[in-house]
Design a protein that fits this description.
By secondary structure, this protein is mainly alpha-helical. It has one domain. It has helices spanning about 10-20, 35-60, 65-75, 75-110, 115-135, 135-160, 180-195, 210-215, 220-240, 240-245, 250-255. α1 runs parallel beside α9, α4 crosses α5 and α6 (about 135-160) packs parallel to α9. The protein is globular. The termini are far apart.
Length: about 260
């Protein structure tokens, strides 16, 4: 049976979409107040280090092996299967939480009259259909969707930086309350969400056509998504102020409302 393969760029696109996901609309790192963008920047660098740790873990386990096989060889078969089961439950939890976040966002912002369970069911049916089509379809779709998303975000970001309502002074003074709020925002919140959750892609490494190429350039996916989140954080604070942004469930949506073509 032929094993389906995806390109390095397709996997990188999947990582970018995964890390941005609901992180775009949610206020990331607002525990740090005006320095939220610094907390996100630090978390991005740590996220890159975590990414290389996952790469090293996969290489140590042996190329082309599944995540379950790596755990079994590392911890013996019974314990490896048990740990794999725990990871699968963790992946299921992530999927359920992201589905709930998107359903709540759509219900609150776009489709007020539609019941939440209808939105969740629609998302799950779409996910099931993509899984049925296979990983190659998922990779190609991710590549196209990443290009569309980044193009849209660049248009929004460039437009907003030239609006009069944007005040860079809202980000000053830097480190007004010292390093403590930044550390609290980074550990453990920003480390685990969204950067630490990239551990799910250990299950996809075996499908990459040229893993050495991904090993060299895959970290750029983490850098791109982290940079976008940092810029969005700057925009949120620049438009809403840190004090006001904390009170919005979806601060970026309130920021976008300032655009008037």
């Amino acid at each position: 049976m032929e094993i389906k393969r995806i390109g390095s760029l397709e996997l990188a696109s999947m990582i970018i979409l995964f890390q941005l996901g609901s992180s775009i609309v949610l206020g990331m790192g607002m525990e740090a107040g005006k320095d939220a963008w610094i907390a996100i920047g630090i978390s991005t660098l740590i996220g890159i280090a975590i990414h290389f740790c996952y790469i090293a873990l996969y290489r140590a386990g042996g190329a082309s092996k599944t995540f379950t096989n790596i755990l079994q060889e590392a911890f013996s078969r019974p314990l490896g299967i048990f740990l794999a089961g725990l990871y699968y439950l963790y992946f299921l939890y992530l999927a359920a939480r992201v589905t709930a976040d998107f359903a709540f966002f759509i219900n609150e912002v776009l489709l007020w009259s539609v019941r939440a369970w209808v939105i969740k069911l629609s998302i799950l049916l779409l996910v099931a259909y993509v899984c049925y089509l296979g990983i190659e379809t998922l990779g190609r779709s991710s590549e196209a969707l990443t290009l569309m998303m980044i193009s849209f975000l660049l248009l929004v970001i460039v437009s907003m930086f030239f609006l009069e309502e944007f005040d860079l002074n809202n980000l000053r003074p830097i480190l007004e309350n010292g390093y403590s709020p930044i550390i609290k925002a980074v550990f453990p919140t920003l480390i685990t969400f969204p950067f630490g959750e990239v551990i799910v892609f250990l299950c996809y490494y075996q499908y990459v056509k040229s893993f050495p190429s991904f090993q060299k350039h895959g970290w750029l996916a983490v850098l791109i998504s982290g940079f976008i989140l940092m810029v969005i954080s700057i925009l949120n604070i620049g438009f809403l102020t840190a004090e006001l942004a904390k009170f919005f469930i979806f601060p970026f949506m309130k920021t976008i409302e300032h655009i008037n073509f």
